[in-house]
Amino acid sequence: MHPKKSTPIRVPTNRARMGRTMIQLKTAQDIALIREAGDILYKAIEAVRKSMVEGVTTRELDRILKNEIVKRGGRPAFLGYQGYPASLCISVNEEVIHGIPGNRKLENGDIVGLDVGVVFRERIADAAVTVGLGNVSAADRLLVRTTEECLAKALAVVRAGNRVRDISAAVYGHARSMGFEVVREYCGHGVGFSLHEDPQIYNYPAPGPNPKLRAGMVVAVEPMINAGTWKIKVLDDDWTVVTADGSKSAHFEHTVAVTEGEPEILTRW
Ligand code: MF3
Ligand code: CO
Predict the structure, then answer these.
(1) Which of 70, 184, 233, 266 is buried most, with the most CB atoms less than 10 Å from its CB?
(2) 15-265 fold
């Protein structure tokens, strides 16, 4: 199940890359297994959310997450992926994605992105949520709510016959209408046999391939929305993506199966 023979070996996670698309369709049986991975993922994220109190370290949350995944028969998809050192990506405040768990303690008012991948019987689900801790400012709540709405609006156009850029336009249109900016250097992606498959799903109407959605595709749709500039930088740890201007950022992600009708969310909560 290595679909990406035609793409470079060292794709830096979900960073945008160019090239022709090769989309692998999933059978009903594949989708059933991805759904099981998604179910483990959901339960593991719930356990992390319950443990999110002021003063907890991000490393402790990573430990809890890994334990919850493993005890349900899953495997953390991120651990070891391209050398990533943890099971959880935890991105606080101005961190956009790929924050590495460590000694950082969560504080009252933080907005915290939790991004998780689970492998179950060789099938993979990927999802993210941003949650506030304690008294979150009205401005930050609006950013988080809008990002979740961007995901909902994107999922509403995930159906056979539409195209990938319809998803991009749905996210971008809503974010911009609310005055927020959209991260451009990272994107959503096909998922299921590998963590990152074709097609790439930008959150803005980028040029490039614009394949039609077909029943049997499974995609991870993941708006990354910034309160300030859309520009990002990567910290010296080579992973943590932060906003270039230090403004806050939020991230939501679901793994969904394309059908002829409503998309099926495989990582539902
Ligand atoms: N969750 C990211 C994505 O949605 C990937 C995490 S990269 C990893 O594509 F290295 F942490 F696994
Ligand atoms: Co993803």
Answers:
(1) 266
(2) Creatine Amidinohydrolase (3.90.230)
